[in-house]
Amino acid sequence: MNDKQIYIGLFGFGTVGKGLYDVLQKIKPDNVHIVKVCVRNVAKHRHQAPELEFTTSADEIFNEPHINFIVELIDDAQAAYDIVKRALTAGLPVVSGNKKMLAAHLPEMIELQQQHDTALLYDASACGSIPVIRNLEEYYDNDLLISVKGILNGSSNFILSKIFNEGMNYSDALALAQKLGFAESDPTLDIGGWDSVFKLIIITVHAFGVYVESDKIFTFGIGNMNEHDIRFAQEKQRRIKLVGWAEKVDDNRLILSVMPHLLSKQKYIYSVEDEFNGVVIKGLFYYKQFMFGQGAGGFPTGSAVLSDITAQLYDYRYEYKKLHSAHKPEFSNDHQLRIYYRYDTPHNLNLLNFKNISESYYSEDYKYVVGEVSLQELHDKAPQLRSADVFLSLYPED
Amino acid sequence: MNDKQIYIGLFGFGTVGKGLYDVLQKIKPDNVHIVKVCVRNVAKHRHQAPELEFTTSADEIFNEPHINFIVELIDDAQAAYDIVKRALTAGLPVVSGNKKMLAAHLPEMIELQQQHDTALLYDASACGSIPVIRNLEEYYDNDLLISVKGILNGSSNFILSKIFNEGMNYSDALALAQKLGFAESDPTLDIGGWDSVFKLIIITVHAFGVYVESDKIFTFGIGNMNEHDIRFAQEKQRRIKLVGWAEKVDDNRLILSVMPHLLSKQKYIYSVEDEFNGVVIKGLFYYKQFMFGQGAGGFPTGSAVLSDITAQLYDYRYEYKKLHSAHKPEFSNDHQLRIYYRYDTPHNLNLLNFKNISESYYSEDYKYVVGEVSLQELHDKAPQLRSADVFLSLYPED
What pLDDT was estimated at residue A394? Predict the structure, then answer.
């Protein structure tokens, strides 16, 4: 142990920022201190932590010579970008929790870290309390990684759990998730799969050394799911889960997607319930690893942020080794997937070119096919698919 | 990435040593090389790796100036101790897979690392491919850890899985485990819980900063289990698992044990089957984390050993921070446990002082009680319990 002291300038005091504060209050480390907190509305937060100094001015944080560490835990991706960039440029180490910002700007952020010889850590951003990124960086760096598959969003998973385990309907489940604080008041990010795709992008950089922009990745959430789809899953003894998926389908091609999967009981992530996250890492040598834990909430995420902070005590940095690897795969949407597809009109059926249709059902109020489509086509038609009255889910054979 | 080169002197070429070699053959890293292998019987191994240089002389390894790294993967704990000590004393970094040796000599090994300013890594020793130690060291170092509970031995778990899921009897299951290479020809270490207790000791140093010698820890395996016990578990809709368990029962007391647990379906480790390992880490802030993966086998463990080796490329060391913590708990056996206890004679029933007996059954050929006993008493009576025709298992209320 060294005697380094971390003096934090904190941006944001929402669930996670407050969580970090609560965790620090509880364990009282002698080398980690919050010096000042920048928030939009001081009056809203002052009573939550009377002894902390709040400000609305970012300058006040950056001009405080005492502060040697920036922690950014705000919602606004553009503001987060400005803060993190300013901090790195000033040579200050940063912890960021904004996955949207990170997913959009990782290449630049990696460059800034190198240019200014400082660290940006964000393990807490990807799966809350599960240290996925650090394990991919450090521990799974020798195996030939095949795939990473995970339930990356606690809110949507909470809703699916209530539907599949407690027979709740979709809107009641969503309302409950919001009431319990698992879902944002605007749940589009969670339900639509966007939050998952941001995390998938971050994970993929560390798992495979490949950075892919979100608009290239097929992303389809659970917002279109209806009672028929739920019954279909139950009849097949499966559950629908929203899954972020990165897989090397051969030596050169890496596919990525966020979409519902119809999972059978044999799958590890079948049993990930409620607001939990779970990630299955598959490698050539160790078969499968499964990591599971709380993906949201103030305490778990605050504690994960603190782990990112104290990593600085021993100068930990992500090395991004795989980004520079000679044999990394290329991102591709060139892959056939077997899906369940519920549609309403012939026009919407014809949105996709199915091959090998193995199941087909038609009635007045419920129509579906099970067959193969290309991921490229799914990606290209995603906007139409999202806005039509259709639902689709990966439907693996086993 | 730096251009450091690792030139390995390898001791042992059994399942794990050969696994390491196979993994290296497959991924061909340009900075990790096996220079020479020391084995007891060269003729036995030469054909497995014709291009490797084998020797029976440890001196040949230690006198080879080219070698800058020692990997010790042998069965014999005393020989492993001599090798690792010699290497550390010579300032060479070491990876060791011998949990028995580590469990017995960790304090000395920690001192040697400091004295000679070099690293000893052993993540692969504790749970094969699951990076438990490194996560406890680095990531879970801020949370207030409450407990670590895990299935730490693949062989005994394989046997229990065959019994509980496939209705196999004990001796057939053991024979199959041996045939598949999951159990040693002398299975006492696995079945008796000794392998688990060695791993638990190592994990406890990194989880709680407390080192406890194996003879202080109550260790009771599955060797005495019979058909009655299996039926009891099934009637209660539980499974018997052999569990290594470390828990802070209050701020100052840490209890440790390896014993069978009657687990209900709600428990994460209930579902850890076959040769897999699974560890549940419980902290004050993040509730529970579950890590799961292959705990044995050449490829998974060889790959884990390689992760320990390449950690040296960035000078990674365990910091043993918690060992120096001011508020670490003290090991204690002062705790009441609720157990299921099958016995044969009144004498053997009276071996233990039960309190709060909540269930009791008596017939000619099957007698048991469910009640509370102290861990201290279990520990003190362990030799008698092991050699009598009795079986016991933790039987938690939920």
Answer: 98
B84: pLDDT strictly greater than 50: yes
In whole angstroms, give the CA distance from residue A361 to residue A366.
8
E strands present in A139-179: 145-151
- Three-state SS at B66: coil
A293 vs B286: CB contact, 8 Å cut-off? Answer: yes
Identity of the residue in A131, A142, A287 whose CB atom sits nearest the CB atom of B135: A131
What is the separation, in whole angstroms, between the first and last Cα of chain B? Answer: 49
Residue with tokens 């950056």: A62
The answer, yes or no, to whether residue A99 has pLDDT greater than 70, is yes
> Exposed, middle or buried by CB within 10 Å (0-12, 13-18, 19+), for B1?
exposed
Contact B287 A268 (CB under 8 A): no
DSSP A168: -
Choosing from A18, A36, A99, A199, the catalytic residue is A199
CA angle B190, B99, B395 (to 5 degrees): 45
CA distance A316 to chain B (A): 10
Active site residue A199: yes
Contact B286 A129 (CB under 8 A): yes
* Distance to chain A for B303, nearest Cα, Å: 6
Instruction: Pick from B122, B133, B142 the residue to mutate for testing the A interface (most A CBs within 10 Å).
Output: B142
This complex has an ipTM of 0.80
The amino acid present at A257, given as its one-letter code, is: S
CB contact under 8 A, A286 and B306: no
pLDDT score, position B1: 47
Residue in chain B closest to A145 (alpha carbons) equals: B27
Say which of A142, A307, A314 has its CB closest to residue B142. Answer: A307
Strands B54-55 and A391-394: unpaired
- Reported as a single tens digit per residue, the pLDDT across B8-48 is 999 999 989 999 999 999 888 889 999 999 999 999 999 99
Of B27, B135, B144, the CB nearest to A142: B27
- CA A76, CA A96: separation in Å to the nearest integer? 12
Provide the pLDDT confidence category of residue B143 given band limits of 50, 70 and 90. Answer: low
Asked if A221 contacts A193 with a C-beta cutoff of 8 angstroms, the reply is yes
Please return the burial class of A371, using the count of CB atoms within 10 Å of its CB with bins 0-12, 13-18 and 19+.
buried
Phi and psi, residue B324, nearest 5°: -100, 10
**pLDDT tens readout for residues A334-388:** 999 999 999 999 999 999 999 999 999 999 999 999 999 999 999 999 999 999 9
Residue A377: Cβ within 10 Å count: 18
A–B CB contacts, 8 A cutoff, strictly below? 131
